[in-house]
Amino acid sequence: MTGPGACAWRRHGGNSPPGAIDFSAPANPLGPPPGLAELIMSCASSRVYLSYPSPGLQSRLASAASEYLDVDEDHIVLSNGSAELLSLIPLALKARSLVVVEPNFGDHELLARSVGVDLLRVLMPAVDDSFQVTTDDIIRVARAARSPAVLIMSRPNNPTGYLADERLIDDISSRLPRDVTLVVDEAFIGLSSLGTSLGDREDLITLRSFTKDLAAPGLRLGAMVTSNRAALRAVSGSMQAWPVDSITACSLSSLLSDRSVRDHVRRGKDLVARELPRVSEGLRSAGFKTFRSAAPFVLVKHRRPNPDLKDALLEHGIYIRDASSFYSLDRHYSRISIRSPRDNDVLLSAARSIGP
Fold first, then answer.
1. Helix, strand, coil % (nearest 5) of the chain?
2. CATH number for the domain including 206?
3. CA 104 to chain centre
4. Last residue of a domain, one of 192, 225, 258
5. Could you report the per-residue pLDDT of 272-289, keeping only the tens digit for each?
6. Domain C-terminal end among 258, 282, 305
7. The pTM is what?
8. Is the Cα torsion angle 200, 184, 56, 248 positive or negative in sign?
9. Residues 247 and 278 occupy one common structural domain
10. pLDDT greater than 60 at residue 3
11. Domain-embedded: residue 9
12. Residues 6 or more apart in contact with residue 250 via CB below 8 angstroms
């Protein structure tokens, strides 16, 4: 984003230059499910965009989303992408403090600054080839926060790929002060090679992103999942009247009802499971340091600082994510998505050519 009003801190993946292979925005490496484009065109042809999203359309979308996620329909709140929920939840719960396990999504800092809540960070140190965090680290910071507070962690973590196992989440939840709400951002769990969703729980809120599973980030749809009635009422009552536009609601209500879509996502997940170790090993052989990941991307450390490395790879038609915008990381870190085997071969060839 550039121009008047642009925010210097807001940097995300995507928007690769023409002709470059985009390794900056992680998503299903198989691309969108077959038939999605036709569904969008059908919805456009029926001119659903001429009306506000109807209650019936929203209801069909909620039913399809709950079936896809395998959760109770009464326990989800749909939104204009999961990023909207990350901003809305602290506001709806009237949080005075935001506790974030870092490195993490940079918009948390923007929210804290814009609404004047305290931002407390729990830093995940890198130990050998993996980032790690302990319950003690998190609880110590959470207890120092002004209440009420919201604790946010991502699983698997963006950008490190670290996957907190369910026992760690249980331990954190059991030891948190009562006035601290745990929010686990599971945007990439549907494509994780090692983990499954925490699902529908009363002691925490999970966030899901359909855009990653479907490789369609322009169709903004996210979901908050919890059986905590108070949190559901607070967040749903704070939503705008039509959080999901008519084209997205129309096309995805049909798509998510098709059980073949789950198979498409599963095959994408299986491809990540096969390609992630190969890409990581190939990058290590080229001289890069890679970190263990359970996500559809790998964090790498390199000698050459960005934007030098990013520009060098771009000359080979490869566009990666400079990870220096993530808290605690510097210009010697980049995040690289897992794509198709053919694209990954191009990446590894370029990496060997230029070195770290």
1. 40, 15, 40
2. 3.40.640.10
3. 10
4. 258
5. 999 999 999 999 999 999
6. 258
7. 0.93
8. negative
9. no
10. no
11. no
12. 39, 43, 46, 48, 57
